[in-house]
Structure formats: C-alpha cells, structure tokens
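Hi L.,

As promised, Family 3 adenylate cyclase:
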Amino acid sequence: MADDGDLEASGLLDGLEGEARAEREELIRWLLERGVTVEQIQTSSAPILLASRRVIGDDGQYVSARAAAEKSGVDLELFERIQRAMGLPRVEDPDAAVFLRADAEAGMFARDFLDAGIEPDELVQITRLLGDGLARAAEAMRYAALATVIRPGATELQIAQDTEALVSAVAPLLGPMIQDVLMLQLRHAIETEGVSATERADGRHLPGARLVTIAFADLVGFTRLGEAVPPEDLERLSQRLADMTRDVAVAPVRFVKTIGDEVMLVSPEPVPLLEAVLELVDETDEDEDLPRLRVGMATGKAVSRAGDWFGSPVNLAARVTGAARPGSVLVAESAREAIGDDDRFTWSFAGARHLKGIKSDVKLFRARRAETPE
C-alpha cells in the first residue's frame, strides 16, 4: 500500500481535483492492493481496465522475440512473422524485452502446426486472418463489456471492479466459443471446396479456379447518409445489412464478407444466388430504416484464397453493382446465360454498358421474380 506521500510523488493524481481526484485515488489504492505497480498505472492509458487486463494475462512481465522463439522451438524470422500476423508491432532488436509475456507466448502454437505439416507461409496467412477477425471480435467484446458495467453515477472503482468480475466470468467461455465457431466454419469450408481430378493428378497443393457466380449488394446513398447521421447509426445499418445477408445465404450460397456498406456472396450454382439476392432486395425494401439496395451479379472462373475470392467475375460483379438502379438486381450476360431459362424469373434487357476496368461492353439484364398466378 502506498502512503499519501508516495501517491503524491508518483504524479498519478496530478491535474485532478475534487471528486475526480478522490475517485482516482480510490481506484489507485485498490489497484495497488491487487499487485498492480505504480509504473504500470503510470504507463497505462486506461488504468480503470488494468485489473481486467490482468485476468486475461497482463502480468506486467516482458520478454524478447528471441526468447519467445527459442521457447517455442521456432525459427526467429518465422516467429517474428507470426507475431506481426497476430497484430504485434515490428521491433528492430529481437533481444529487446518489449513484448508482454502473454502476447509473445501467444505464438507458441506455431511449432505444433509446423510439425503437423502446415507450410510456414500458410501458417502465417492463417494467423493473419485469425488476428484480423479476432481483433474485430475483441473490439466488439470490449464495447459489450463496457456497455454492461457502465451505469449512471458509477465511480471509477466500481467500473473497474465490475469489469474485472465480468471478464473473470466470461474469459473461460471464450476458448470453447471460438473453437466451436471456427469448427463450424471449417466443416462448411471443407464441404464446399472440392478438388478436381486434374488437380489430384498434378498433385497441386491448392485448389485452382472454380466456375462460380459472384454477387455484390450495396446500400444506395450510404456515403451521403454518413454526412447526416451519427457514425453509430451507420454502423448499425451496415450490421443490419450483414445480418440480413447471412440469413438469406443458404447453402450453396455463401456469405463472403462485408465491405462497409457492401456485402459479397458467392455460389457454385447461380440460381440459388439469384433467389437469395432477390429476397435480400425485397427485405431491404420493406425495412424503413435501411436505404434501398442494388445488386450486381456475374459468373466466371475465380479462385478462393484466405476466405476471399479473386478473378474476373469478382471485378465484373462489383462494376455491375455500380451500374444497377436502386432496388434492382442487375445481371451480367455471363450470369444470365448460366441461369438459363427458369420460369421463376423474368428478364428485361438493360443495354450494353462500358464498365470501368472491363475491356468489352457488357450486356446487362434486369432480373425480377416471376409473378405467381393467383
């Protein structure tokens, strides 16, 4: 326990007066009782969350990249690549003890994956994707935790105590939760990604290009809307679109990603994808809170890498989306031919357009649901 003189000398109360000073002093004394050091408090931008950080591994100990690499049995250069893939910064001196022990040792999984036969470059890519996705999940969890514990009139100490209690209760649940969600995604990825006879004969390590149909859907006027509504409302609208898209993306249709106000879907079969995006347009038209949606589709050979898709139909579908009218589904000729004659849809020719980045003019067709006879 620090006495009053030590606390004054630490500078931790500088610039604070009245109730704010009393609250901070109460918080600091509680943190010191729990083993948090004065230096840790001084260097923290959020001392109110120091106790909860300790629950998830921040013990104040620092190690070097070299020490962590040697402990894991992984080459230093590869270990540093994995650290950066997880989101840790590049450090010039591998012998400098600048990484939190828990952060540095988070890469200990590398040796087991390498021993299982995973190539180093593939391991770095997997780690990067997990790091990117889990960074967003961690931010959402942080927001949810603070939203849970912050209440009118709560003091700094009360928020710190409540956050520590919440994190202590939730932390043991995160591992099983992440594993279950990841295994679900892996099961579906393995189910839908085949390997052709040619690829097997050639012994190719990665599946090649596939004939797929790509669709993009974006909210019309979203950028202008950002000038009139708070950022929180924009985020809510974007999340609403993502949730609706996941609901309509029934196998073989797969939700690929969200890009701000835009979503991307893929399917090896064009008809289910067209049905999905028509349903999505109908649902957004009925939602008074959402701007209208426009959709573009194209079919062609594309390759799946790192959870994303690359190839000419991806670029074409994005360009077609930009040419679509609000509330419409615009289909490139490639997708129109792939869908063929299906009495569930009606078509109107929307003209041939020169689209940015596409060499030849593209014939476009507007797709609608066929009216059901009464």
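The chain has a mean pLDDT of 86.

Thanks again for sending the construct details.

K.
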